[in-house]
Task: structure prediction
Amino acid sequence: MAKRQKEKPTTPQPVGLRIIGGKFRGRKLQYSGDQRTRPMKDRLREAIFNLMGPSIRKKHAVDLFSGTGALGLEAISRGADSATLIEQHFPTAKIISGNAGTLEIESRVEIVTANVFIWHKRGPKLPETPWAVFCSPPYEFYVSRTEEMLDLIGGLIEEAPAESLFVVEADDRFDFSLLPQADQWNVRTYSPATVGILRK
Result:
């Protein structure tokens, strides 16, 4: 009887990323596969943009913990005028820049390589047009940096122009009732994620 060959251990493959709607639908995005970056699953990203609907149009997207940059780039694909993407990891920020270049939208995308909390405390200059703010940090931040997260989200809500949108992604460890205007958030569960959307 022939001996069974031992199966070689498989190395996790990078998640395939793509734009899932709008002008650039189907276009692939480069992603390093770095475990520090948690790409949002396509079905969750699609659910979020479906909830936002056409109100994303003409907004300035602000992707706070940009990671792959998929949220900000998807926003432009679906009609946002421009985007600011904040990512403190230099190699990841460089990949985001490359993706913007591939889509030929460099002039509409500002990539800020910085810690989000410090960036906000410095008083960033954002357009006076309504924003679409995406907050999709490492879930652990809602546990270990709760006050900082609440200050960040609350401060941006206060500063944002009227008609701005806010999208907050967390897991079941975060209590959405802690957010400002708690009764006005549209909160949905897409296990393991929970998403809240606020229209200012």
